């Protein structure tokens, strides 16, 4: 079942994010890796900045999370993670389809690490297209606030949505 999670659910959200993010260790630049990958303060700041977190749970256990953030004329997909023991079972796809349904923007953007090929392939499989380096740099500057090192080692993908109504 997919529902929205809030700051009161921070411990569960962080459990999923920090468990799943271990996959990045040794893949992303060492200076971008830290433990925990996301701290309670970072999550609180993200939620206060307008990130809405949605979670997929079974038997009251949160197995996956995926957030959205409306910025100007786009919706950003933020913090998409599935517990490591549950990856590849359709949880991310279920969350992404849910976000497609509730999305209010024509443009959906997601940023990820350029070496996270599994994440890039996931989004390509779901109709996203990979932006060029020039487009990526422009989009990261306009819609995200990321350090230069992260900007240099990231990619941005986009999906154009048809909105009903």
Any overview of this molecule?
- The chain is built from 6 helices and 7 strands, in the order βααβββαβαβααβ.
- The protein has a single domain, classed as 3-Layer(aba) Sandwich (Aminopeptidase).
- It has helices at 10-20, 40-48, 91-102, 117-125, 133-143, 148-152, and strands at 2-5, 52-58, 61-71, 74-82, 107-113, 129-130, 154-160.
- It has 165 residues and is α+β, with helices and mostly antiparallel strands.
- The chain starts with a strand and ends in a 5-residue tail after the last strand.
Short descriptors:
6 helices; 7 strands; alpha+beta; Aminopeptidase; globular; 28% strand
Quickly describe the structure.
This protein is α+β, with helices and mostly antiparallel strands and 165 residues long. It is 35% helix and 28% strand. Helix 3 (91-102) links the parallel strand 4 and strand 5.
Set out the fold topology.
Layout: E1 2-5, H1 10-20, H2 40-48, E2 52-58, E3 61-71, E4 74-82, H3 91-102, E5 107-113, H4 117-125, E6 129-130, H5 133-143, H6 148-152, E7 154-160
Parallel strand pairs: 4-5
Antiparallel strand pairs: 1-2, 2-3, 3-4, 5-7, 6-7
């Amino acid at each position: 079942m997919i529902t929205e999670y809030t700051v009161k659910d921070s411990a569960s959200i962080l459990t999923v994010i920090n468990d799943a993010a271990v996959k990045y260790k040794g893949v992303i630049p060492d200076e971008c890796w830290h433990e925990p990958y996301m701290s309670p303060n970072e999550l609180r700041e993200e939620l206060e900045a307008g990130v809405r977190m949605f979670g997929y749970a079974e038997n009251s256990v949160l197995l996956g999370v995926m957030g959205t953030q409306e910025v100007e004329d786009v919706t950003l997909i933020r913090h998409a993670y599935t517990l490591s023991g549950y990856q590849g079972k359709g949880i991310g796809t279920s969350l992404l389809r849910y976000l497609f349904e509730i999305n209010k923007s024509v443009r959906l953007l997601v940023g990820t690490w350029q070496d996270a090929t599994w994440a890039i392939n996931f989004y390509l499989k779901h109709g996203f297209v990979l932006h060029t380096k020039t487009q990526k740099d422009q989009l990261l500057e306009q819609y995200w606030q990321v350090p230069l090192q992260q900007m240099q080692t990231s990619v941005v993908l986009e999906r154009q949505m048809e909105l009903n109504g």
